[in-house]
Amino acid sequence: MTPPPGGKAARRAAAAAAAATAAASAKVTSVVDAISGAPAPDADPPTSAESAGSAGSAEAPKTTLSTEHAEPEHAEPEHAEHPATTGYGTPASDACSVLWDHDGTSAYGTAATARFFVIVEQPGPWGRDAARESHLDRELGAELEGRTSRAGGRFMLIRRPGGHPANDGPRHVFVAHAGARPEDAWLLVAEVDHVGDLLGLDWGALARGSRALVQASLLGSRPAEPTLLVCTNGRRDVCCAVRGRPLAAHAARVAPGRAWEVSHTGGHRFAPTAVLLPWGQTFARLDERASEWLLGASESGHLPAELLGPLHDRGRSGLAGPSQCAESHVRAETGETRLAALWADAPEAVDDGWDVTVTHADGRRWHVRVTREPAGRTRPESCGKKAVEVHEHRATIVEAWF
Fold first, then answer.
1. Nearest to 54 by CA among 206, 159, 191, 204
2. How far is CA 68 from the centre of its chain?
3. CA–CA distance from 328 to each of 96, 137, 230, 283, 359 (Å)?
4. Which residue from 309, 392, 313 is spatially nearest to 353, judged by alpha carbons?
5. Who's near 150: CB < 8 A, 6+ residues apart?
6. H/E element holding 188?
7. Of the candidates 281, 313, 106, 267, the residue with the CA atom closest to the CA atom of residue 181
8. pLDDT digits (tens, 9 = 90+) for 152-209
9. Within the chain, what is the greatest distance between any pair of CA atoms?
10. Which DSSP category does 387 fall into?
11. Terminus-to-terminus CA distance in the chain, angstroms?
12. Which of 81, 90, 172, 194 is deepest in the core (most CB within 10 A)?
């Protein structure tokens, strides 16, 4: 790609140099490198509070991103050079996600459960409770979130990576059904002038996964390409902003229109976290290379082999936690990257955990025993919270049929 002319190219070069310097001194530089055993140097102390958050009425979080290379006020900003999206964020040495990274705690079975997703583009700042604390009408946000959750889904806000000016133009809306089986997943996108039009969605059809009926109830909707949503809401946890915003910006440059900032995925301790639609496949500890792998592989309905296993794979949202764990474990054991190739049944409770059957499209089946056990340490599940005992889902293949 030809670099931008003149001063902007120089600014990009300076930003890249600053990012490299920051990465060298960060407690966690590349998450993929850190958790694979590479030693991590000491972290630099925070230098700016405001750039860590995603702006709202509450006090800004006190963790940082570099602000040296922000565009001058008279220049038109680009997300690639916004101060919160230049380089890789440097979390504090005691940030929740840093502690969980260094422990290598399993992420299996930790995806937030949801059969479907309703996602609204909402520029501007978000509060902790984004549906009620943004420039979206508070009552409308609460009503949409309530209808979504009562039907078994998850309501989230998204925005384009970079600066977050508020505007009242048409909004992108995504509606995704994750499905009990990944082969049943689908994703629709539409542009709406009035978010209130979403109240007319066929909620029953959405819960059942009837794409035709949902599409008929959402005028102008059409099938969408696989889309990556990166959690960046610093009002819920500083780690999501510091580590998520640069990642979302990079992913959006790699695949314009297929990567967005999202208000909440759950699992701050695994930041940067992301959800891949339409499957609701949820990930932990991503970095720029991982986002590139995901965006590339998902175009053909695959996951990158590098992200299989308990460090990155949190599970598929359409399943209960034990079934997520069993499916992810079999996927890692077999090296199966095709999303539609594997599915787990509902878990059956037993004395010491759960039994789950995982099936492959070629007819193979696995009987998996899943337990949830203490890891022998305490850690905060979110920055600023009291440390609690850490538990992990663990899976064992009891029997296999071929």
1. 159
2. 27
3. 24, 39, 20, 11, 12
4. 392
5. none
6. strand 186-192
7. 281
8. 999 999 999 976 666 777 999 999 999 889 999 999 999 999 999 999 999 999 999 9
9. 68
10. P
11. 49
12. 90
> Encoding tokens for residue 141?
């946000």
38 φ, ψ (degrees, to nearest 5): -70, 135
Residue type, 26: A
Place of tokens 């509902």: 346
* Token code pair at residue 151: 């039907």
In tens, the pLDDT along 233-287 reads 888 888 988 999 999 999 999 999 999 999 989 888 998 999 999 999 999 999 9
Query: Which segments of 263-352 are extended strands (E)?
Result: 274-277, 281-283, 313-316, 342-344, 348-350
- Give the tokens for residue 4: 């931008």
Q: Is the pTM of this model over 0.85?
A: no
Phi, psi of 80 (to 5 degrees): -65, -20
Q: DSSP secondary-structure letter at 282?
A: E
In whole angstroms, give the CA distance from residue 308 to residue 336: 9
Torsions phi, psi of 196, nearest 5?
-60, -20
The helix or strand, by DSSP H or E, that contains position 323, with its residue range, turns out to be helix 321-334
CA distance 87 to 202: 42
Cβ pair 119, 229 in contact under 8 A: yes
For the chain, the residue count is 402
Q: Quick one: the chain helix, strand, coil %, rounded to 5?
A: 30, 25, 45
The CA-atom distances, in angstroms, between 223 and each of 173, 218, 277, 349 are 12, 12, 12, 38
Buried/exposed code over 258-268 (b: 16+ C-beta within 10 A; e: otherwise): bbbbbbbbbbb
Which two structure tokens, joined as six digits, stand for 241? Answer: 């902003």
Structure tokens at 64: 């940082």
Q: Which residue do the tokens 């700016």 mark?
A: 48
